[in-house]
Design a protein that fits this description.
The protein is α/β, with parallel strands linked by helices and 257 residues long. The chain is 46% helix and 20% strand. The protein has one domain: 3-Layer(aba) Sandwich (Rossmann fold).
Length: 257
């Protein structure tokens, strides 16, 4: 089994298990508190502050085409498409996730204004320069080849478009280490926004997972709950050195709108 197949199977099981219970979503909402974006049902670090930043940095016009790369069950892309009145394309490596996203879109957007595809970020099924804006929240780190994924995002982005991507680094990460992969993919870094409250939100969430271990094992099963708890124990000691960023990328030669 290839790394891509293993990743797909893992995320299929992840989304299937969580779609059958509201416990994980309730803990997520509790961890984010007053900035929790109600109704998104996202399992990423996205909060209302990030949604505002994404909408501002994308700077899309009505009717343009937005790509949600690593869309999961669609919450972030659907919110942005509804708010900005754009069309939406979502891709995710998990067919379970894209099925759930397409089902949600029927209730949130006009017919024909959203489509979801099962594909890896490194092989996007779209023509060159086809997409007016790209959002990628907490998904790029899962790509087996991040450089190739960034190059694909660059390939499909319209010359005047922007890609807005979340990334976490260590506090001592030099600026060159953040910017070099961007340049290697053909982008330039237009804006860098900080998310100072993101590590604390993950800290609260991981501690909630640990304190609700018995309930998680009961509703998700030992395998899925075990993966969550292993992540919590692995990541908690690292959060004090975590710096959460939002990168807004564009083509070096892009002009005004």
């Amino acid at each position: 089994m290839t790394a891509e197949q293993q990743l797909r199977e893992g995320f299929d099981a992840f989304y299937l298990a969580r779609s059958q219970t509201r416990l994980v979503s309730r803990l997520h909402a509790q961890a984010l508190g007053e900035v929790h974006p109600a109704g998104l049902n996202t399992h990423s670090s996205c909060d209302r502050t990030l949604l505002t930043t994404l909408a501002k940095r994308l700077d899309l016009r009505r009717g343009q085409l937005l790509l949600d790369a690593g869309c999961g069950t669609g919450g972030i892309g659907l919110w942005l498409a509804h708010t900005l009145q754009t069309r939406l394309i979502g891709i995710d490596i998990s067919p379970v996730a894209t099925h759930l996203a397409a089902r949600r879109a029927r209730f949130l957007l006009d017919p024909g204004s959203a489509a979801f595809y099962t594909a890896p970020m490194s092989r996007l099924p779209f023509p060159d320069q086809h997409i007016h804006g790209i959002v990628c929240v907490d998904a790029l780190s899962f790509a087996p080849d991040r450089t190739e994924a960034l190059r694909e995002l660059h390939r499909v982005l319209h010359p005047q478009g922007r890609a807005v991507i979340t990334r976490a680094v260590r506090h001592d990460t030099p600026a060159t280490a953040i910017e070099q992969p961007v340049r290697d993919a053909g982008f330039e870094l237009e804006h860098l926004d900080e998310r100072p409250n993101e590590p604390a939100a993950w800290d609260r969430l991981y501690r909630l997972w640990i304190s609700h271990e018995a309930a998680l094992r009961r509703v998700l099963g030992d395998q899925q709950a075990g993966r969550m708890l292993a992540e919590a124990h692995r990541m908690l000691p690292r959060l004090s050195d975590r710096r959460a960023l939002v990168l807004t990328l564009c083509r070096p030669s892009h002009g005004g709108r």
